[in-house]
Amino acid sequence: MATTTLPSGQVSGIRSYWARFRGGAVWGLLRAIVSNRKATAGVVILAIFCFLAAFPGLIAHDNPQAEIYNPGLAPSAAHWLGTNAYGQDLFAQLIYSTRQSLFLAVAAGALATLLSVIVGVTSAYMGGFTDDFLSLITDIFLVIPAFPLIVVIAAYSKNGGDTILIAVLVVTGWSYGARQLRVQALSLRNRDFLVAAKLRGERRWRVIVSEILPTMTSLIVAIFLGTTLYAIVAAAGLQFIGLGNPNTLSWGTMLYWAQNNEALQSGSPLWAIMPGICIALLGAAFALLNYAFDEVSNPALRPVRRRRR
User: In whole angstroms, what is the distance from residue 51 CA to residue 73 CA?
Assistant: First the structure.
């Protein structure tokens, strides 16, 4: 057989790229997830929920909104979780509700994190009046109690749909992350590589995007995980008390209808228990993932864990 050899220059380029990848944040993140059992468990749980959200029809074959069965049936081979008071299959509702619940949490977490990055990093890098003004706005949202504000805004725009619900979660969930990012950006503002970028005449937005943000990747991801965890619980709480759209399929609306029909007292406890378990598992997945990002952002944690072993 004929063999082909790569030029020495190309081989050295591949080796240097692999060395940069192994020493980079992506490789460090993968190593942290694999070496941390809690982080691995979080990834597995999140992957299962993502699969259920993407392909619910492969798991549940019934129409989740069809009222075609006898009400209040007990769990059986035909209906794994039984039926609710409206004759709907509870297992199908639980599986199909995964997509809406996961979408609300991730969308609210991503938008809140984006707002935190814009406000926090801009405030620290610009300084002066811009820093004072943005810090004042951040402090106001930090002082105001979050959940009462959520209830007031959601009640004012009741049944406004998912857009209003996401907006409420973003408005009440960005301030803590912005404060953390501002502190981190302030510690980087006078570093040599930023001074060199300014001397080269690079624009401010380019310095922020290409110089500052890459150094704070692990902190940004940690803020996203924390904000998403907050959005999971807050969205379910709002829907449970009737401030969401009760006609959508989500775990929070399942809890709302279960509470309205007194599921625990009427012999249908799984109607209320299973959505609560799913909310807890999804929240636990995002919480467990923070262990991996703690190791990436704070290397001092890694030697401590090795010594314990």
Answer: 28
258-291 pLDDT tens trace:
999 888 888 889 999 999 999 999 999 998 887 7
CB-count burial class (<10 Å; 0-12, 13-18, 19+) for 68: exposed
User: How far apart (Å, rounded) are the C-alpha atoms in residues 186 and 178?
Assistant: 12
Among 124, 60, 123, 61, which residue's Cα sits nearest to residue 94?
60
All structural domains of the chain = 52-69+77-308 (1.10.3720.10)
Residue 73 DSSP label:
P
C-alpha separations of 111 from 153, 158, 159 in Å = 18, 21, 21
Tell me how far apart the alpha carbons of residues 131 and 123 are, in angstroms, rounded to a whole number.
4
Q: Which residue has the tokens 């290397």?
A: 299
pLDDT greater at residue 177 or residue 159: 177
Q: Which residue is listed with tokens 């990834």?
A: 43
**Mean pLDDT score, 6-33:** 52
* CA-based radius of gyration for the chain: 24
The 8-class DSSP code of residue 78 comes to S
CA–chain centroid gap for 196, Å, is 35
> What is the distance between the alpha carbons of residues 109 and 232, in angstroms, rounded to a whole number?
9
* Average pLDDT, rounded, for the chain: 81
Beta carbons of 268 and 85 less than 8 angstroms apart: yes
The encoded tokens of residue 82 equal: 């039984």
- Residues 109-145 as b or e (16 or more Cβ within 10 Å = b): bbbbbebbbebbbbbbbeeeeebeebbeebeebeeee
